[in-house]
Specification:
D-Maltodextrin-Binding Protein, domain 2, alpha/beta, 2 domains
Length: 282
């Protein structure tokens, strides 16, 4: 009997990940000779593990990938790209973006695309501690920081905590580039056999297709891991972050990713690299 290879698969507990990857992790996609072992952690923990090269396959921020490009290649499927779904800056009182300079602005991790965009648009802000993404709304509401860059499902719930939107960083990126915002993607470590890496990319696309065709199949898995349990919130989250780019980036998505990588390098947030970006491009 042929041995089965185990690939550790890093993913966040957010509804878009649990919805999209449920089929892959629960035998609804045929992956001959391979089983996936889920490693479920917050996005910044996955980013840090990516920089250490720990996981064979992982979801992570594209900003982190900009620093780990020699170790990982990007799949063209399974990512979170889009328009109107970028990080938001929120505060406990109404304010304008130009007022942020002297304030304490909490970030969801220094390796996130949210942090990269905030640094790009607000180089004047120097007091930017990192907190786990799910702690950010309460940190602002409780006065631990003056404002925060929020991501994931908190985009839909910050008003319930009495917070005010200051700026949409994704909107600024789209206005600057005319491209969607590349938030997170799936990456395969470069020491994984090239043929297997291409299979992983295809299987993720099949997992997406199954999720779209069978939206109720993952309901229990999504609810088990979601930070916000209201069905309306998880449905909004999935609808916004699991979109046509999750099935395949296409030229527009690939252009957006390359633009973000170039921006990270130009800003000094990542080294310049000539290493091919995508699986199969070597």
């Amino acid at each position: 009997m042929k041995a089965v290879r185990t690939l550790r698969f890093g993913m966040s507990p957010c509804p878009n990940d649990t919805f999209l990857f449920h089929a892959l992790l629960h035998g609804r996609v045929a992956t001959p000779g391979v089983r996936f072992e889920p490693v479920i952690e917050d996005v910044e923990s996955l980013n840090e593990r990516m920089l250490r090269g720990e996981l064979e396959v992982t979801k992570a921020s594209f900003a982190a990938f900009a620093r780990a490009r020699e170790t990982y290649a990007a799949c063209r499927t399974g990512g979170a790209l889009g328009r109107g779904n970028g990080p938001l800056v929120v505060a406990s009182r109404p304010m304008k973006p130009h007022e942020l300079g002297p304030l304490k602005i909490a970030l969801p991790g220094g390796l996130t695309t949210a942090a990269l965009l905030f640094g790009l648009f607000h180089p004047e802000c120097s007091d930017t501690p990192s907190l786990r993404y799910d702690e950010l709304p309460d940190a602002v509401a409780n006065g631990r920081c003056d404002a925060a860059v929020i991501i994931h499902e908190h985009r839909f719930t910050y008003r319930e905590r009495g917070l005010h939107a200051v700026e949409d960083l994704g909107q600024r990126w789209e206005a600057l580039t005319r491209l969607p915002v590349p938030l997170g993607g799936v990456f395969v470590r470069r020491d994984v056999d090239a043929q297997l890496a291409r299979s992983v990319e295809r299987w993720i696309g099949e997992s997406f297709a199954f999720a779209r065709a069978n939206p109720d199949a993952s309901r229990d898995f999504v609810r088990k891991h979601a930070q916000e349990l209201a069905d309306g919130v998880t449905e909004q989250h999935i609808a916004l972050y699991v979109n046509e780019f999750s099935a395949g980036y296409g030229k527009v998505g690939e252009d957006a990713i390359r633009r973000l990588l170039l921006t990270a390098a130009a800003s000094g947030a990542a080294p310049r690299s000539a290493t091919p970006v995508f699986v199969g491009d070597e």
